[in-house]
Amino acid sequence: LTLHMFIMLRALCVGLLCSVAYGAVIKGGIEVPTYTEPCRRNSPDFNVCIKKALQGIVPKLAKGGIPELELDSIDPLKVPEMIMSYDAEHIGGRVTLLNTITRGISKLKVLEVRSKTDDPNFFLMDIDFFIPKMLTTGLYRMQGHIGDIPVLGEDTYNITMAGVTGTWRLVGAPVVQDGQTFMRINRFEVKPEVEALKVHANNLFKGNKELSTVTLAFVNRFWRVLYEEMLPYTEETFDKVVRNLLNKIFLKIPYDQLFPLA
C-alpha cells in the first residue's frame, strides 16, 4: 500500500502543478502543460479550484500520463522494483517486489481540500482522498518473519485493497532564491486507512503448502494489526521521500506563479 501511495502521490503532485501552474516555466526552461485556469490563492473558491484541478487531472494521468514531464500512466501503475525493510513486533525482514502492476487508481476521488494561504509566511494544504478498490499483482522475494513464523520464499503475489481513504497534509514556508519567493515544503503527512485487505502469495515456504496456507490465513485475519505496526516505518520514509519530491517541484516555480493572487 505504501508503495502505491507514494507513486500515486508523485503523479498527483505533478498533475496538480500541471493543473494550476498556468503558463509556468520551471527552471531549465521546460514549460508546464496546463489543463485549467489558475487557482487564485486569495479567492474564496481556492479550495474548490484545487479540488477540481486535482480531480480533473486524474483521468489524464490514468489515460497516458504526462509525456512532457516523463510521467507514465498511473492506471495500470507499473513499478519494476521496490525494496522494503521492517522491524516491527509481529512482522519483520526484507521484502523485494518485482514487476508490480496496480489497477484501480484511476477511480480515485478527491473528497475535499482545505488550505491556509492567507499568511505569507506559512502554507498548509490538506487533501482528502478515497479509492474504492485497488488490485496489485507481481513477484515477491521475502526473508523475515510473520508473527513467530520465519518466512523465506519467492514467487507471485497479489493484494486486493478496498475502501482506501486518507489525507495528504503539506506544510511549508517561503524561501527567497535569486530574488523570487518559492514555497518550501517542510513536512508531509499521510496515514492511509483501509477498509478491507486480502493477500495471496505463492511459495512462501519453498513449496510447503500447509505452512503457506496457515500463514496467509493469519495475515488475512490480522492484517489490520500488521498494517498498523508497519505505519511508523512507512510514515517516516514517506515524509522524507515525498518532501524531497515536492520540493523538487515547489522550488522550481515561484509561489506567485504557482498560486497567484487574484
TrEMBL record:
UniProt GO cellular component terms: extracellular space
UniProt keyword Signal present: yes
Keyword Signal found: yes
UniProt keyword terms in alphabetical order: Biological rhythms, Signal
Example GO BP: circadian rhythm
Pfam families the UniProt entry points to: JHBP
Span of the signal peptide: 1-23
Annotated family: Belongs to the TO family.
Protein name per UniProt: Uncharacterized protein
Organism: Clastoptera arizonana
